[in-house]
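Amino Acid Chain and Its Fold in Token Form
===========================================
Structure side: the spatial fold of the chain, written down as a series of whole-number tokens.
Position: the record begins directly beneath this header, with no further notes in between.
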Amino acid sequence: MSDTVDALLPLSFLEAVRNVDSPVEDFEAELVGDLRNKRLGLSDTVYMQIRRFNDAVKRGQRTSIDEAVGLARLLGRRPDAEAVFRAAGRHLAGEAYRTTIGGVARNMMHILPAFLARPVALRHARRISRRYLNGRVSRVGAHVYLEVAHSITQDTAPRSVGCTYYEASLKEMLRLLVNSVGAVEHVRCATRGEGTCAWRAEWKPTAAQE
């Protein structure tokens, strides 16, 4: 097991907390200062950590897996943990997609027929999952599987809520790659004593590719 993770992973946790805790645009301005004292995502600590991890991402650096797990546990104690984990998963997938795949390749995957676009999209999904999630992506028939041998979010929240991080990452990644809108199912869970965590997603083409 690797003892490090890509810095984008813990950064996604912090960005999600900041976004979830940010007040709506029309919120009373005089109350924002009070919120900063009460909401973790608006704290100076989170702001500084976001800056630190952003710098690490720009330099292509990795960070301690223990630090990432610690942040996941912090998220897992929140009453809105599931919403934050899902937001974090979407953030990671979105940033990975935009920074690792060139614009021409992104456009081609949406324009080409499915039989040409799918292999390209699958290669990108495998690369993103391996680098950012320490996971393995495979295709079986009409489904795509993401398997994570050592989940960062395992046991960080009650009722396997932490697993929604990877579920949201996979769903957003496929949506961006091929505009897939199929369901994602958590088919195996280490928390339940099933060895590793795995998710299965429907592999649906866009209307233009059918």
Observations:
- The chain is about 55% helix and 15% strand.
- Residues 23 and 29 are 10 Å apart (CA to CA).
- The two ends are 40 Å apart (CA to CA).
- Residues 4-202 form a domain with the Muramoyl-pentapeptide Carboxypeptidase; domain 2 fold (CATH 3.30.1380).
